[in-house]
């Protein structure tokens, strides 16, 4: 009976450990993303086509850039 209880307890603890390890991994990834240099903020001035647009980048002027596939152009 005690052996069965200990095994169940061990499985529960292993599941908790795996969950905590996943949380640590996710936090490390988030931390790494936060350490990357910031990107410039731009304002879309005009859509040139379905996948290109004219953007204004602060005081740096305007540029034509490609629109990422996962961005809804609407």
Structure description:
With 74 residues, the chain is α+β, with helices and mostly antiparallel strands. The protein has two domains: 1-36; 39-74, no CATH class. Helix content is 46%, strand content 20%. The chain has one helix and three strands, in the order αβββ. A three-stranded antiparallel beta sheet has the order 1-2-3, with no helix packed on it. The longest helix has 34 residues, at 2-35.
Topology:
Layout: H1 2-35, E1 43-47, E2 52-56, E3 62-66
Antiparallel strand pairs: 1-2, 2-3
Offer a quick outline of the entry:
It is built from 1 helix and 3 strands; from the N terminus they run αβββ. By secondary structure, the protein is of the alpha+beta class. The longest helix is centred in the N-terminal third of the chain and has 34 residues.
Question: How confident is the prediction overall: mean pLDDT?
Answer: 92
How would the global form be characterised? elongated
Please describe the biggest sheet, giving its number of strands, its sense, and whether it closes into a barrel.
Answer: 3 strands, antiparallel
Radius of gyration over alpha carbons? Answer: 24 Å
- Percentage beta strand: 15-25%
Secondary structure: number of strands: 3
First-last Cα distance: 64 Å
Report low-confidence residues grouped into runs of 5 or more. Answer: none
- Read across the widest sheet, the strand sequence of neighbours is 1-2-3
Structural class: alpha+beta
Count of separate structural domains:
2
